[in-house]
Every structure is written in structure tokens, then in C-alpha cells.
Design brief:
single chain, mainly alpha, Arc Repressor Mutant, subunit A
């Protein structure tokens, strides 16, 4: 999937500056796509050249002027065409932590356990952030009411997927820490 598709998905929320997109990426598509601010700015420039977005300049007094981007008709047509394409093969996991876990028996078990614990802290923090976003989207409504009334349900569905992913990371982390701890205890007994 190209970054442009994630940018177009974020712009479906409405007009945004490059800075706002970079900052807000965490609140809109970060549970399934990441990008640096530099990547976002380059992509916005390309998309503007291709007529997928338009930009207007907003003059500001004590700050530099900013450019607000929005999808053009061609951009919305590109979103429609993109969603009509058959999906690519499912993504594959490329996770350095899993490589370290794979090597745990030949490596430093304590360091691997620490890395797993840090991943769990990261997942917990993301879940807290995602829950705040979920509450903001629901705005006091039940989930059923949200699905019946909201203008767009895609952001909520992808948020639920991100939350599920982080919960699974926590569940796996608990299992991994328990088993790695048991293995470390065996190694410690054998070396005594």
C-alpha cells in the first residue's frame, strides 16, 4: 500500500496542514500505517502535482503561513478506485523483537525478557491512547448508536483493529515472559 492511500484516508477527515497530518497521523491511521513528517510532506507535494489534493495558504500573524490540504474530486475518485481494487496479499510480520525471541536460547535471556516487557509497556500506552480516541469518536454514544449514526465508520473499525492488535501483543508478551522466565530459571540451576 502506498503512503498516498494512507494520506488520502487521513484527509477524508477534512482539510489539514502537513503539520496537522503528521501530528494527527497518530490519531487517525497510526494503528495501521506509520510515516515520518518528511515522508508526509513529500507525498503531499507529489499528490498536489498529480491533482489529488489542493492546498490553500492561510496567513498567520506570529507564525509562518501554513498550507491546508484537502482532497480534490480526483483525490476522492482515487480513494474510490483504490478501495475497489482487490487487496494485496496480507501483510507479513517483520519484527526485530521476534528475531531476538527466536534467538533467546543462544543469546541473553534477560535482555530478551526486558525487550518483551518494553514492548508490553508500549502496547499498554498505545491502548490508553486508542481508548481516548475511541471515547472521542463515540462522544457518549453506544457503539451501536455510533455505527448507526456516524458519517464515517471506517476510522472506528480500524481503531478497533489496532486495539485488538495491542491486546494480542500484551497476551503474547505475558506468555513469552512467563516461558522465558522459566527457561532462565533452568539455565541458572544448570550453571550452579
Amino acid at each position: 500500500m502506498a503512503l498516498r492511500n494512507a494520506v488520502m484516508a487521513a484527509l477524508l477527515e477534512g482539510e489539514a496542514s502537513g503539520y496537522d497530518l503528521a501530528k494527527g497521523f497518530d490519531a487517525t491511521v497510526a494503528n495501521f500505517w506509520t510515516a515520518t513528517p518528511q515522508q508526509l510532506y513529500r507525498e503531499l507535494e507529489r499528490m498536489e502535482t498529480e491533482g489529488l489534493v489542493t492546498a490553500r495558504v492561510v496567513e498567520q500573524e506570529r507564525r509562518p503561513n501554513k498550507r491546508l490540504f484537502s482532497l480534490t474530486r480526483a483525490g476522492r475518485d482515487a480513494v474510490r478506485a483504490y478501495t475497489a481494487e482487490p487487496p494485496a496479499r496480507p501483510s507479513v510480520v517483520r519484527d526485530e523483537l521476534l528475531v531476538k525471541v527466536q534467538c533467546a536460547d543462544a543469546g541473553d535471556l534477560d535482555a530478551v525478557r526486558t525487550a518483551v516487557a518494553e514492548r508490553m509497556e508500549w502496547a499498554t500506552a498505545k491502548l490508553v491512547r486508542y481508548e481516548r480516541i475511541r471515547q472521542r469518536l463515540l462522544a457518549g454514544r453506544s457503539e451501536e448508536a455510533y455505527f448507526a449514526e456516524a458519517e464515517r465508520i471506517g476510522p472506528y473499525l480500524t481503531l478497533l483493529r489496532g486495539m485488538s492488535f495491542e491486546r494480542e501483543n500484551l497476551q503474547w508478551g505475558e506468555l513469552a515472559l512467563r516461558r522465558l522466565g522459566q527457561r532462565a530459571a533452568v539455565h541458572n540451576q544448570q550453571s550452579e
